[in-house]
Amino acid sequence: MPTLPAFRLTDTTGTEREFPSGRHALLCFVKEDCPTCRLSMPLIEAAYQAFGQDMDVWAIGQDAEGNAKLVADFGLTVPMLDDSALHVSYRYDLDTVPTIILADGDGNELERFVGFGKDDWQRLFQRLISVTLAPPPVVDWNAYPESRPGCGSKSVEPGIAERLAAEVEGSPLRARRIEVGESDDVFEFMFEQGLTDGLPVIPPTPERVLRMLSGTRRDPQEVLGLVPPNMAPLTVEKVAINAVMAGCKPEYMPVVLAAIEAILDEQFNMHGVLATTHFPTPVIIVNGPIRDRIGMNYRMNALGQGNRANATIGRAVQLVVRNVGGGRPGEVDRAMLGQPGKYTFCFAEYEERSNWEPLHVERGFAPEESTVTVFAGSSPVPIVDQLARDAKALATSYGLALQALSHPKHYLQGEVVLIVPPEHVDTFAKDGWTKDQIRARIQEVTARPVRELMRDEFCAEGLPPTVARRLGPDTVISKFRNPKEITLVVAGGEAGKFAAYLPGWVSGPTGSIMTTKKIRD
After folding, report:
1. How far apart are CA 101 and CA 113, in angstroms?
2. What is the full per-residue pLDDT of the chain (521 aa) written as tens digits?
3. Which of 27, 339, 399, 494 has the fewest Cβ atoms surrounding its Cβ within 10 A?
4. Closest residue by Cα to residue 31 from 61, 71, 75, 69
């Protein structure tokens, strides 16, 4: 026999009733606007009149005003307990009212039925007669139908179930709650508390956070790591809170979690990305089947506005860094100019539009796996080549454009992401060029002797003198210290021969290293 949850509720006279009480109990869950509940009320009253001296017989109503109306309409003397908070209904896992439950004195469930069934009530009365030895109530059974379906319990109505899950005992939520005054505008309040990125955020109510947590099977209290700069511990629950604020759907949670794990990886160096006066921000690139499952954009306007998944996943990561880690502009975030990507920068790769291996496969993952790659990058810089008709000419244009990355004399660069549009993919594919051939041509085109890259009377920028002396003036070097750090990703609409590159920040152990994490539920 299942043991029912204990509870205390107050009836309409202000008397507190406690279950279990040591006596048998008949618990009758009802709501006033349910016709089947109203049909059952005379039988609930008859049960109280016949058996109420020897056991607890209670009507448990789900709406305070409705409870009072039921008492008035039916002249009830049976105690009407107020469960308008719906906590008891929720803990009793009610789907339908009326629900009639018989329990013994220890709170063990003996019998339950839902809706209205004449046979159910007749069988119940016979059992109560045997329990109490009381005479049967007088009921005109001919006045009742054989059966009637019940109505939905208020505890399962949309929006209410999530709130109840957040309020009752056993809720997975542990974050401190902030009370907002009734007269306060909650959106302005969140601005005043410094919880936004400058745009309005969605209030993370407990029910919304629980709904967001339904998007992952991970423990809400699992600690993902320490968020710089404050090195604050980050739980899955706190990620969900910020994902709500960002406007994410629950199905985005696995992607957000993987992106967070990537930026918290020591090699990504999120603290350095924040603290530099340069431009970088986490650029999030998503690969694998999850792209289509959650509706990400990797086609037209892939880097722009209009796609909820792209926009809110990136924003959730930024809000975590701000609200959990304390990475606020003007404080530890020392960006001199900043960039729009600090609001959000997230897109997916157009894997199907290329004969090349997608990014995650290049980085050691299986094609059927879904991943997030984070890169400390700046805003996109266009590369316009609408005339090249062969791979070598197009790769030459890429090299010439990339020579200006950061500064034409800044050489031995680290990571860069080159976004190749479909029309350019076709040009490379026609000649059978691989990514490595493109990288090699970029290095060839950008090769310059050290003497041309040294600081001089006309330009104070260039190779540091110590580097120039070490290499020697006649040494020829290329723009990038390692061609493998030129990452090619396919994205964009079918029309338009416009590529782009995302400049990186200081790459390597003293800066940031591109990091990829597998997405898991």
Report:
1. 7
2. 789 999 999 999 999 999 999 999 999 999 999 999 999 999 999 999 999 999 999 999 999 999 999 999 999 999 999 999 999 999 999 999 999 999 999 999 999 999 999 999 999 999 999 999 999 999 999 999 999 999 999 999 887 877 787 777 667 777 777 878 878 899 999 999 899 999 999 999 988 999 999 999 999 999 999 999 999 999 999 999 999 999 999 999 999 999 999 999 999 999 999 999 999 999 999 999 999 999 999 999 999 999 999 999 999 999 999 999 999 999 999 999 999 999 999 999 999 999 999 999 999 999 999 999 999 999 999 999 999 999 999 999 999 999 999 999 999 999 999 999 999 999 999 999 999 999 999 999 999 999 999 998 899 999 988 988 999 999 999 999 999 999 999 999 999 999 999 999 999 888 999 999 999 98
3. 494
4. 61
**pTM score, whole prediction:** 0.76
Name beta bridge partners: 29.
60, 99
Q: Under the phi-then-psi rule, with left for phi > 0, alpha for psi from -120 to 50, and beta for the rest, what region is 306? A: left
129: exposed, middle or buried (C-beta count within 10 Å: 0-12, 13-18, 19+)?
Answer: middle
- Other CB atoms within 10 A of residue 224 CB: 17
Q: Are 166 and 173 in contact (CB under 8 A)?
A: yes
Strand locations in 250-402 (E): 281-287, 346-348, 371-377, 381-384
- Please report the DSSP string for 400-411 in residue order: HHHTTSS-TT--
